[in-house]
Amino acid sequence: MRTTIPITSRPLDLIYFAFFLVHIPATLLIDLQALYPASLTPHFIRALPQLYVQMSNDPLIGSVLGMLGDSKPFVWFKTFLAVEALFQLPVFVLGARGLWRDSRSIYVLLLIYAASTTTTTLPCLSVLLTTPTTSAQTIADKVVSVTTFQRSLLLSSYIPFFVIPFIMTVDMASRLTKLVTTGIDAADDKKSS
Question: HSE on the CB side for 144, CA within 13 Å?
Fold first, then answer.
């Protein structure tokens, strides 16, 4: 039986652990409000994404919540939010628990999560990068746009949700490759003895 290494001695696992813990309230209080019935959501919780969109003019959250016009073009993003609710949120809890316990059995789930999240965050970054910059024309045309400050703010909040899962994808694939290779080598040694 292998000795459990404390999470503080595993820097990447500590980053992943903190990432999952931070992601839980952000998911529940902001992201998933597009899926909650408004009548069941307390006012102070409904106010959080409103404040966020007022500050950032996030075209994704603002549109899917109907704050920035028609939400129909963003049905793809609402689907990503459903994936976040049904798959990612449980992974945040299971992943944090598995990382805390130094369980190698969590690697497969973390690889699936990380690859999926990297894939779904990339189109979100594309939307943020291609959203028009606010100008007199965008204001006159009532086009959803962001200021340079808002784009910087949005990118600084979305990029970590791409980079950390991307690193996790490579890291978990590497860890699993080593485990599989060790298992194959052990099986080969057992056959030859």
Answer: 24
